[in-house]
Structure formats: C-alpha cells, structure tokens
Design a protein that fits this description.
The complex is a heterodimer of chains A (about 575) and B (about 250). Chain A is α/β, with parallel strands linked by helices and about 575 residues long. Chain A contains twelve helices and 21 strands. Chain A has one domain: FAD/NAD(P)-binding domain (3-Layer(bba) Sandwich). In chain A, about 25% of the residues lie in helices and about 20% in strands. Chain B has nine helices and no strands. With about 250 residues, chain B is mostly helical. The interface between A and B is large, with 81 and 78 residues.
Chain lengths: ~575, ~250
Amino acid sequence: MPKTLPKVDVVTVGVGWTGGILAAELARDGMKVVGLERGKERTTADYLHGHDELRYALRYKLMQDVSKETITFRNNRGQRALPMRQLGSFLLGENLGGAGVHWNGQTYRFFPYDFEIKSLTEKKYGKEKIKKDYLVQDWGITYNEMEPYYDQFEKACGISGEENPMAGKRSNPYPTPPMKSTPILEKFKKATKQLGYQPYQIPSANLSEPYMNQYDQQINACQYCAFCERFGCEYGAKSDPVVTVIPAAKKTGNYEIRYHSNVTEVLYDGEKVTGVKYVDIYSGEEYIQPAEVVALTSYVMNNVKFLLMSNIGEPYNPNTGRGVVGRSYCYQILPGATGFYDEEQFNSFMGAGALGTSINDFYGDNFDHSDLDFIHGGVISITQTGKRPIANNPTPPDTPRWGKEFKRNSIKYYTRTLSVGSQGASLPHRENYLDLDPTYKDAYGLPLLRMTYNFTDQDKKLHRYITKKTAEISERMGASKTVPHPELKDYSIVPYQTTHNTGGAIMGEDPNTSVVNSYLQHWDADNLFVVGASAFPHNGGVNPTDTVGALAYRAAEGIKMYRKNGELLV
Amino acid sequence: MADEETYSRREFLRKSGYAAGGLVGGGLIASLITKQVMEEDPKTNPSDPNLSNDHFNDAFMFFTNRDDFRVLASSCERIFPDDENGPGAIRLGVPFYIDHQLAGPWGNNTKEYMLGPFYKGKRTQGYQSRLNRGEIFRQGIQKIKVMSQMEFQKSFQELEADQQDNILSAFAQNKVNMSGTSSAEFFELMRAATIEGVYADPMYGGNRNMEGWKMKDFPGAQMAYIRQIQSDQFIEMKPQSLHNMLNK
C-alpha cells in the first residue's frame, strides 16, 4: 500500500525548465510546491572537470538512462515498433534541470505567423493551401498575447541578443547585449547581406556579460569554452533552470524537491486530479502525494505518457481522426550545406552553444509561398558552437570512411569546413502520433511510449527548397566546395538530429482538437496543467525553448488564477 | 603561435562575473575554490620521482588472449593508419582504449535498453541486437581470424595491408555472416571506437601524449577562448588534458 502524504498546493512531475519556472512563480506567490524529480541533484560545481567529449557527448553522461525507460519507434502503422535501445536522434535529459542543463542556449521566439498559422495561411492563399491530412491549427493564443511571457522568460535567463528586423514586436530590448562576433560569423553576415538578407546575432542564453535576473540570481559571462551542448556550464554562464529559477523557488521556503522520485500515475477521479503516485527508486517505497493542482512538467514524451497511462483525455486514433492525446507529434527537419575550404583554416573548435548568426528571410510567411507547394520555412544560420574532434570528421564526398585517405581528409577538414544550417518547421500529420506500446515495458513495468513518425511530403519539399538557399549562401561565403545535405528520406531514430520534439498534448481553442487550453489547463481536469513543448500544435523553424519557457510563465499565471476561482480559465 | 596570451586568474574573475558585485550562489564560489584546492592538493599529484613510468594501464581488462588483441590492434591500425600526418591507432594506444571500454559500461550495454523481444527491425529503427558490444567484438574478431585463415592461410596480423583491407571491407560491406548481429554493425562499432580512441582524452588510454589532438590542431580541455574567439588568425595552442587541468 502506498503511503499517503499531506496534501500540498502544487506538485510538479519533473524539475527542469517548466517545473522550475512554475516553482519559482508559485512558491513566491505563497503556494506550497513539491517537485518530484526522478534524477539526482546537481550544481555548477559538478561541471568543472567536464570538458570530456567522450563521457558527455558520446556516452551521454547527462542524458536519460534508456536501460530503464525509452520509447519504441516505427515509421508507419504497418511496421512493428521496436525499442530505441540507445539514444540517437534526440537526447532526453535526466536529473535536476533536465534537458535544460545540456542545451545550447539558442533562445528564439516563435513568430506571429506560428500562433495563427492556419488563419493566416488560409487568408492569404486560400483554403486549399493546407493539404488534406495535415492537422495544422491555430494555437488559441496570439503572438501579442504571448509577448509578456516571452519577456519574463528572457529576463529570467538574461538573454543576450540584438533586434531581429523580421521578428514580432518586443516590449523590451534583450536584457544583455549580443555575444561577440567572430570571423566565421562575419563571413556569413557579409554573404547574406550581399544576397539581400537581414542577418542578426542569435539570441543567446550564454550571456555576453554578468547579469542579475528578476529573482536576484546571478548568471555569469560566457567564456566561449566550446563545451555547451551535451554539457553543463561550469561558469554558471549558460542560463539553465538550476542557476535561474530553482534557487528562487527554494529561497521562499515554500518549495521542496524530492529526488529519486519516479512518478508512475496521475490520480484522476473523472473530473479532477487528486495527486500523483510515485516510487522512491532508492527505497522502493510507494507514495501518494495529494495536491490541489498537478502540473506535468517532464519532457514531451512523458507528459504524453502520463496522460495515456492515467486515462485522462481521449487517446488519438489515426483511423478515425478522433481523440486528442498523442496527436500532432512534430519534430523538425535540418536542411543545410557544408562548405569545404581548401585555403582557409578556422578556429572552429572555439565557440559557445548559442554563438551564431541567423536570417529569417525564409521563415514562416516571410517569403511568398504562392508558387510553392509547401508552407512555412525555417531559420537559416551559421553557428560556432565549438567542434569537438571525435564527433567531427568532415570529409569531401567520395572519401572512404576509413583508412589513409579518411585520416588525411578528416584531419585536414576538421578546421576547414563551415556549415550553413537550418531548422525547418514541422507540421502535424494525421499519421504521426504517440501512443502506448502494446509489448515493451519500462523498469517499473509500465508500457513504453510508442512513436509512429515519418517525414512528410511537406517536409521533403521544404527541405529541398531551404537546402538550396543554404548552398547558395555557402557558395557566396567562398567555400572551395559546397556539399548540400541529401534529400530527405525516411526518418531514422539512429543519427542525432535535434532534441526539438513537440506535440502530443497540444493547446488550442477546441477540446475536440486539443488537450489543453491556452493556459495549458487540461480540458477534462481543470486542476491539471500539462506544461512544455508537448503543448505545441506544430513545431516552428527555430529552437523551441523560449516558447517552452514562455508557456510555463503563462501556465503559472493560469494556476494562480485557478487557485482563486477554481474553474476552467477559458 | 599567434596571439596566445595567458589568461590571468584576475581577468577570469572579472570577466566571468565571479568577482562582480552581488555575487550569489554558493555553488559558484565553491566551484572556484574546488579548482584552487585541487591545484594545490598534493594527494592528486604523484610527485615521487622514483615511481615507475610504466604504463600500468596497458594491460587487458576485457581480452583474454594476445592473439585476439593483436587482431583488434591490426584492424584499428587499418582504420586509422600510421602515416605522414602522425601516429596511427596502435601508437596512439587505441587497442588498449577499446579493451578498457569493452570491459566497462559501454561494452556491457548498461545504459542501453536490452529487454526483449528482439526483432531484426528496419534500418531506421537502429540497434536491435540481443548481444552487448563486448559480445559483438568477441564474435567479430573470431570471424576475422577464421576468414583470414580461409582466404590467406595466415593470421590476420601477418597479412599484407591490402589483404587486411580486403577482409575488413567485407565486414564493412556486410558480406560476412554473423549471429545475432551483422558484420557491418560490428565494423561500424569498431570504426567508431577507433576514432574515439584517437581523440578521447588521454585518461581513457588512447590519444597518447595528446598526439591525436595535435594532428587535428585541437587544444583539448581549455578553460576559455574568450581572448582568442575574435582572432582572424588560426590559433595553435598547446593542448591540455583533464589530467593537466587537475594537476596544473
């Protein structure tokens, strides 16, 4: 029998960005908040000896242990889903701060077009523009309504940036100036300007100068050490949940984090949730933590898994198109081109996770789609994140994969390639969804989440179009040889692509086509909030974290309102 | 050596914000202190000049006989050969690196999901073997030995380089029959492990004397590039290992 603990105001399932933001906002508002974190505690001091590519980047030191829990994957419903036995395509986080610790820190806002994608596309191009089977819909919130929440999150992080001429209006400038520019970035700026585009420095959570946030937490200045993505920052110079929001919550005395606590069920009586059941993975003991409000604040996968396991909301059925939980799972595509330089050598081993320059001339509807058979687009960037030697062995095409010539070329071009890359938006499709696997189980005997996903026709066309643009930029930059990324084929779980997974518990205006309302409040349980990129109705063509953070601030406001009036907010 | 300047501690403190006004967060101070303590802690720095310089780590943790190890070593050397660019896999210690990795969590797949049922799966579904990496290497090396005898009536390590390449190519092209895995899967693992051994921090047994990094002009575990990041010259720096960092 699980032991029932005293009731608290709010329990969050997971303590990363979203759990940390809710804790800071709600504990400061006087609520008693408990954060259940299945991993361990960690601090900045844990990263001082962390410049170890093998341990962190290759052996996934900071990532989820998939021997205990993973997902299963198949490209389509005709296939048998099999477990993702090792990490690859995306890197799930674990321990305090979650994936918010090992991110790069690129902190873009989504664009006004994203939030009203369906209305704006149909208004300009007609009803036929969005093809059958694509479940594109408006978000139930506009950019202008989102702006204050973006502003709050960017202030919590102290984002370093400069005005992006094509982005939505800002109420305030970036809290800190942009990061340094470098010869690599300047090369991209010059080329894109010549082509008539408008480059700007990537908004960065690796800060250009020391900064104090609204909770009196200091974030330090980036030292450009080049160990960001897949690493924690030993300087406390990359804004993550552990240095920005979690200490703010702790200071109030209203916040408790319980480590090694793995939630197995959200308790639901058909109208409201009453709390969560969890197991202390050290002692093996089970507990019930009753709460006035439950917030699911784990990554996309587990937010959806908890809803499905706890029978909250109708699971999506791809046969009928009915049901909502697991619907609209999206990812991203990565068009791009690699430039090989025979004459120049670059300091590409130096850098920072969010050091880069971008253009938005091919984002959203910033370019005319009248004669194009896809919608949306993607950011195009050059980044200088710091190339490490195990993972970076670029060779021109036709170089063998091993042996003398491989050795020569991979050594030569390690410091002689510059890649122009993009993140292409990803639109929901009827056949791409998440549900529970009928066969495979996790370490607690619970079903694994099953992902059914493939790249769509829209993805392939967008990929082709943007890849061409990136290759043109690479050529203009003066590459001796430019090699565009190959055409998109079937999605594979194997090579790393991006940890920008979205959807499955999406927000919207209509309970028939969304799981949560615009406060991320569940339509079928008004004291349950499902917070994170799981709420994105589609994925934009930039990094999602700014929007995740902003939605967490929105949800925090929603929970405060709910605690006053006790009902659905929309 | 253009523009290589010492990055003074005072400057580090000022620029990073460690010494800026209103410093908060015990963890930050603690981490700085940790570094200072480590640097001065004699216990982490073996200083007895009479201690042997033998490579005690150059011994088998995974392999049980020398012949298997020589087959691995010769294979790695073909993947990353000694040439005018610098040392190959053997001189870099890569075979010992792989031996040690196979003996640990990586070789035993402790962080991989290894529950059944097992099915072959599509390419896009990735690793579906019921074998762990250690078992795959063991089997792969036996297959190399058998094939070498069959084709050339010699041990693999005694073959000419092009004969060795022929055999390894057959593995890479998935032409060799293996049980519970494929020869291409085995070859890809060996290729990946070889590259890791060339470029991973020397503490793991490969990348001897940081020679792998030197070939690539990669300076290792540096603390900061804030002074060099804007330079329009390519910067060559003396590489630094994690051991150096701890015992500077």
